[in-house]
Amino acid sequence: MPASAKKIQWINSLKGVCILLVVLNHIITTSYIPSLSVINQHQLITKVWVGINHYLVPLRMPAFFFISGLLAADGVLVRSWNEVLTKKAVNLFYLYLLWCLVQWLCVSLINRDLAFDDWRLMAHNAAYASSAGQFILYVAAAMSSPWYLYALALYFVICKLWRNHWVLLLGLGAVLNYACVLGLVPWWGPASVAQNGIFFFTGCFLGSRIVALLADRRSRLTLLAALTGLALFHWMLTMDKSLFTSALAVCVAILCCQWVNRHWLWHSGPLRALNWIGKNTLQIYVLHKLLTELMAVPALGALVRYHAFDNKLFSQLWLAFYPLAATALCAAGAIAIWWALNRGVGRVLFQYPSLVRTEKALV
């Protein structure tokens, strides 16, 4: 594989890891942890899965936004508004609003008509809104599962407007991040958007420089040492999810993905699959919520009703392998649904209508 292609592939690898971690997080929180309330035997593996999900929080979304900022740099710094407004901002806002509506309708149907007994999910999320007014409020406040799309559109517009004052923008992003870590920003939607802006801004304005620093051995060691020291300092101040912890996690993840793509055979099946997933994160991101809901409500509800967890072997297998198996199933299911829908008029589910090309339905 050419060197230029390998440079792109590590980005796809990191994006692939991030989207799978997002799916895993929703599996853990919506069905795995609730299942523990009906399983009498808890094992070490239970703590391992919950711990993995907890300790990867500083990496999951910060890495996603850093890479998104890095990829958006050309549109922010080089291209005109006419070239990028529809393709970037309008398209992202369109997809956000569309999938908020789709998820609300589908999740409401699942919880109303497919639930067993009282085994349902509820959350401060647009997908669980009890009225149109509450739905609009949650959507406006980014309190919805596709909030990442809302944030991307907002960050892109802000970076485009402030591109000549990017140092101030980075400072503002850092202040907002600290405010969120300290719990000063109310509601999880606004807090998520405010907390992660710094990573997109950094990726957009400094991303290429950071990647270059990581490529040089001396600069790499200096950067990692500095971030480690700052992360430990904040940890001692009980800020274990600080800006610097996330920055360190992102840098280590970049180095790992670069190493894997340098040393693994480029045609390796697992790596090729991961990189393909990284190129196609959108469809997994917007569709996996529906699949995790099906697993958390009708599937888990049926297992509880029919006492499947009374079987010791089944419970042990569930505790050990369910998060991994369910993550793989959700990712594969989302890709399959996208493949079926992404043709004809269905393509407007994944792209703003004016951007849909007639000559190619699938990529």
UniProtKB/TrEMBL annotation:
Keywords: Cell membrane, Membrane, Transmembrane, Transmembrane helix. GO terms for molecular function: O-acetyltransferase activity. One of its GO terms (cellular component) is plasma membrane. Its main location: membrane. It comes from the Bacteria. InterPro entries: Acyl_transf_3_dom (IPR002656). Pfam families: Acyl_transf_3. It is found in: Cell membrane. GO terms for biological process: enterobacterial common antigen biosynthetic process. Residues 9-333 form the Acyltransferase domain. It is a multi-pass membrane protein. The keyword Cell membrane applies. The chain crosses the membrane at residues 12-33, 63-81, 93-115, 135-159, 166-188, 194-214, 221-237, 243-261, 282-308, 320-341. PANTHER family: INNER MEMBRANE PROTEIN YCFT, O-ACETYLTRANSFERASE WECH. Belongs to the acyltransferase 3 family. This is Putative membrane protein YcfT. It comes from Sodalis ligni.
